[in-house]
Amino acid sequence: SITSALIAFLCLSAPGGVSLVVPQPNINATVAQNILLSVEYSCRGAATIEWKHVSSWGTTKIAEWKSGNYVNISTVYKGRVTTFENGSIQLLNVGMRDAGYYFITVTEEYGTNTYGTIIVNVYEIIYEDLHFVAVVFAFLAAVSAILICFMWLCNKSLHLCQKKTTHKLTASTTEEIELETIEC
Prior knowledge:
Protein name: VSTM5 protein
CATH class of the largest domain: Mainly Beta
Pfam families: V-set (PF07686)
Largest sheet: 6 strands, mixed
Keywords: Glycoprotein, Membrane, Signal, Transmembrane, Transmembrane helix
Number of helices: 2
Radius of gyration: 39 Å
Helix content: 25-40%
CATH topology of the largest domain: Immunoglobulin-like
InterPro entries: CD2/SLAM_rcpt, Ig-like_dom_sf, Ig-like_fold, Ig_sub, Ig_V-set
CATH superfamily of the largest domain: Immunoglobulins
Strand order of the largest sheet: 2-11-10-5-6-7
Signal peptide: 1-20
Number of domains: 2
Order of helices and strands: HEEEEEEEEEEEH
């Protein structure tokens, strides 16, 4: 953005300057997604990179490292943050609490600083409509199964009644024939 380019220009023109570019200052994510907080810095000497998260829950230091040296990741973010040499970090499995402002500070060994900010919005995936459809589908499937069972029982009962009626008719017809034969 224009602000990032202006900061980069001012930092490069400063003695021992540090430049920082934030290509994507706004990130929209959904819960459980992985996000990359991408930056690119350059400086003449070694730099220390520090990331902080500021939200309505407070300020938390995420990570701090010196280029080509140690990496210190906060216990809150252990296992969820990956750091990169260019100053970027990847945040795994974001939650609603990860929404907010992410501040990066790049400090050159000569004491020159530059700052960058990324705003992260985290949204929940709302499954209410999907749940409604699933419940209606389950209800209709249950009603269909009950109706099929009821129809099967009715069909069986009808066949049993027809067999008894046919058996009685056959027996009475046979008796009449026998009676007729005997009378002669």
